[in-house]
Design a protein that fits this description.
- With 297 residues, the chain is an alpha/beta fold.
- Helix content is 53%, strand content 13%.
- Strands 3-2-1-4-5-6-7-8 form an eight-stranded mixed beta sheet, with helices on both faces.
- α4 runs parallel beside α5, α8 crosses α12 and α9 packs antiparallel against α10.
- The radius of gyration is 23 Å and the shape is elongated.
Length: 297
């Protein structure tokens, strides 16, 4: 089918390639026109902006938005003014699920359907496919199903509920991801400081073969350790894109204990401090009551 991809960052770019490889016709638009022109050279149809993309689609028009969360609201506003009754907007970005429900309500005023597609797969999605957690009306999801099935690996797409549900499930997915990553990080640091000279790359490799802790994340860690066993080229600064925070907030709103996800988020905050002021407070207090002074050299 023919659709438009609005936003051609790493994810949007690769998703466009996968869609075209699956036989779909894709109209592409991005604020960086050079990227859109590059994809046009690979078989896509160039559009100068969202309105131009809409003009190049047959009804019912399908727009897939793959833009940063901070601009999603304004892009949805553009789409609302450019689309007509029966058209469909798919939001595949990391939008807060509450905002997704608001976007659905806003578009519905003009008869436009909204699907929120929680998308996981990262830069490997082009090759392996994207796990898709989709929210929206049954009719809108059914119409767009050929798109979802092309992007996802076999069995990797599910209609999880109404608008907002897709990004809600993706939010929890990312919260779990935080916890898994932190557990691997702590375990491998314990082994790094062991009274043995352990081959961490080798351990990561064998744990991927039948172990109960095997996972794709472990495979990625093995690949990284194969290149740099001591991770000398990696700075220990870990950013977060919001979903972990949202998961922790929802756990509080719904009175659900989530200590692992919460602490993994806090560990990311700690990684961004060159030297923790809280740790200085602890050292100062310990010195005051016990005389355990540790001064800078």
């Amino acid at each position: 089918m023919r659709l438009a991809m609005i936003g051609l960052g790493k994810m949007g770019y690769n998703m466009t390639l996968r869609l075209m490889a699956g036989g779909h016709e894709v109209v592409v638009a991005d604020r960086n026109a050079d990227v859109a022109h590059e994809l046009a050279g690979r078989g896509a149809t160039f559009a100068s902006d969202l309105r131009d993309a809409v003009s190049k689609l047959p009804a019912p028009r399908v727009l897939w938005l793959m833009v940063p969360a901070q601009v999603t609201d304004s892009v949805v506003g553009e789409a609302a003014s450019a689309l007509s009754k029966g058209d469909i907007v798919i939001d595949g970005g990391n939008t807060n699920w509450k905002e997704s429900r608001s976007h659905a309500e806003r578009l519905a005023q003009g008869g436009v359907e909204y699907c929120d597609a929680g998308t996981s797969g990262g830069v490997w999605g082009l090759q392996n496919g994207y796990c898709l957690m989709v929210g929206g009306s049954p009719s809108a999801v059914s119409h767009c199903e050929p798109i979802f099935k092309t992007l996802a690996p076999p069995g990797g797409y599910l209609h999880v509920g109404p608008a907002g549900a897709g990004h809600y499930v993706k939010m929890v997915h990312n919260g779990i991801e935080y916890g898994l990553m932190q557990a691997y990080a702590e375990g491998f640091e314990i082994m790094k400081t062991a009274p043995f000279s352990l081959d961490l790359h080798g351990i990561a490799r064998i744990w991927g073969q039948g172990s109960v802790v095997r996972s794709w994340l472990l495979e990625l860690l093995e690949a990284e350790l194969a290149q740099d066993a001591d991770l000398r080229a990696v700075r220990g600064w870990v950013e977060d894109s919001g979903e972990g925070r949202w998961t922790v907030q929802v756990s509080m709103d719904q009175n659900v204990p989530a200590p692992i996800i919460t602490l993994s988020l806090q560990a990311r905050f700690r990684s961004r401090q060159e030297e923790s002021f809280a740790a200085k407070i602890l050292a100062a207090l310990r010195n005051q009551f016990g005389g355990h002074s540790v001064k800078k050299a």
